[in-house]
């Protein structure tokens, strides 16, 4: 637990200031010092939730669980919600993005997919309502331009060659 925290602390905007203006660095540190411990920890080590379906003997069950902040958590059949305090990101894996493009969740036989698109957005809105300053909401998909925000925060446990296998 401590090595992960130190890893994310060293990569956070509080220790790396080279790409920020002095005003932005000062603003981030001011917010960090004025927030409670929970929010300050989220600023250093973001929270990642994974939304997916599990096929069981009883049928298909919707599953929400905390995921490690690691590249292995990025899966094609999952939706991820990452809270970094300053932004809230919703990421659709490759297969989920395909389902959305094909409008499968609007068909009667795939109506259970609708939960995969609405629940993460509802959870993100709950986070945004209670947050000051209001965080930026980012929605992206596999190979989307905004995917870089997710890839920047996760631990790169896989090489770029392995990412094509997922």
Report a brief summary of the structure.
By secondary structure, the protein is α+β, with helices and mostly antiparallel strands. The chain has 2 domains: about 1-45, no CATH class; about 45-165, Severin, CATH 3.40.20.
Task: Describe the 3D structure.
GO terms for molecular function: GTPase activator activity; metal ion binding. One of its GO terms (cellular component) is endoplasmic reticulum exit site. Pfam families: Sec23_helical. Keywords: Cytoplasm, Cytoplasmic vesicle, Endoplasmic reticulum, ER-Golgi transport, Membrane, Metal-binding, Protein transport, Transport, Zinc. By secondary structure, the chain is α+β, with helices and mostly antiparallel strands. The protein is elongated, with a radius of gyration of 17 Å. The protein contains six helices and five strands; from the N terminus they run αααββββααβα. Strands 2-1-3-4-5 form a five-stranded mixed sheet, sandwiched between helices. It folds into two domains: 1-45, no CATH class; 46-165, Severin (3-Layer(aba) Sandwich), CATH 3.40.20. Helices cover 37% and strands 21% of the residues.
